[in-house]
Amino acid sequence: MTVTFRLHASSAAIFILSTIMSALGCTGASAAEDKGRLDERVVGHYVHLVSKQERETSPYGMRDLIDQHRTCVRNNKADGKPYLLEPTGGWPATRSRAEREIYYSRTRTIAFNRVYRYRVKRSNCDLEERSYEKIVLRSAAGSCLARTTEKTAYGQCDVAAHRRMVAPPPNARYPGFRKAGVRDIAGYPCNVYLGTPPIEICIAQPKSDFPIMDAFHDGHLPGLQLQWKDAVHDFKADVVRMNIEFPESVFSIPEGLRQIPMPPVEDDHEDRERKK
Q1: Where are the annotated segments for Disordered (predicted)?
Q2: Phi, psi of 39 (to 5 degrees)
Q3: Long-range CB contact pairs, 201-209, < 8 A, 24+
Q4: Best exposed site among 27, 105, 176, 240 by fewest CB in 10 Å?
Q5: Does residue 33 fall inside a structural domain?
Q6: Which of 60, 88, 51, 85 is nearest to 227 (CA)?
Q7: Domain containing 87: what range?
Q8: pTM
Q9: 258-259 and 152-155 beta bridge pairing
Q10: Does residue 69 contact residue 121 with C-beta atoms inside 8 Å?
């Protein structure tokens, strides 16, 4: 598998950094100096996870897609609108697929979560694939949750503030998880943790040049996320790269996002799609 490291251009990198310095320990920098840092190299770890098929218990699986198609055909036929009895190209093997990329550095983590899902087009009952992306950036400066599909951002999304941190945030273990064994994934042993609502994650702590902080969505369990199971997907690592270099610009948030005051509801997008 060829790994292509993701690069983001962010206007946050050229903002004038004249805000009050965080008590967590950081130093100031001019806008020009800050912009130049995007070309610097960061030493860290990289994990790529894939979910090739939704879980059997998923409410958004193939069975639901077929039901939506039948309903569309029935309604469009009754209304005299165009409809396809079978999707162009046939039925896909699975309703959705997903991938997750996580970058770990000494002071920051950033995760890119992408879901690709088929939906029924009401205009002619054919299928189309839509993509959704969520980005989680975390450091001692705080956490940023960005949804590029909705163009929204919540939390501490000043990329420069995250970059100025000189120490990682403390790891506060989430009490909702309990350890449940060990398994091997992508050549690394990882500890299995079970949580409520039903969720299962596997966290590895391999040899590293620095203590590995959690990636925020891991329930505050420090280490590399190698597996994540929930009601919809089963993410599993297929690529792990330790102690490598990647561009500073990896830890960026896309420009043009609307800052929102409240955290977004963690829905599955499909609910909103159906209301359109």
Answers
A1: 257-276
A2: -90, -5
A3: 201/177, 201/225, 201/227, 201/228, 201/229, 202/226, 202/227, 202/228, 204/240, 206/242, 207/242, 208/45, 208/242, 208/243, 209/43, 209/243
A4: 27
A5: no
A6: 51
A7: 42-264
A8: 0.77
A9: parallel
A10: no
Q: How far apart are CA 80 and CA 11, in angstroms?
A: 49
Number of neighbouring beta carbons within 10 Å of residue 239: 14
Tokens for 1, please give them. Answer: 């598998």
Q: Is residue 82 part of a domain?
A: yes
Tokens of 90: 């046939």
Residue 196 identity: T
Within 13 Å, how many C-alpha atoms sit on residue 178's CB side?
4
Collect all residues with Cβ–Cβ distance below 8 Å to 139 and sequence separation of at least 6.
107, 108, 109, 162, 165, 168, 169
Answer yes or no: is 254 within a domain. yes
Instruction: Compute φ and ψ for 137, nearest 5 degrees.
Output: -110, 130
Three-state DSSP at 39 gives helix
pLDDT of residue 195: 85
Structural domains counted in the chain: 1
| Rounded distance between C-alpha atoms, residue 126 and residue 85, angstroms | 9
Q: In whole angstroms, what is the distance from residue 159 CA to residue 138 CA?
A: 10
Angle at 150 between CA 129 and CA 165, to 5 degrees: 120
181 domain residue, yes or no = yes
Question: Which residues fall within 8 angstroms of residue 59, CB to CB, at 6 or more apart?
Answer: 231, 268
CB-count burial class (<10 Å; 0-12, 13-18, 19+) for 12: buried
Contact of 97 with 55, CB cutoff 8 Å: no
Q: Bridge partners of 28? A: none
Predicted pLDDT at 19: 30
Query: Helix, strand, or coil here: 183?
Result: strand
Residues with pLDDT less than 50, the chain: 1-32, 268-276
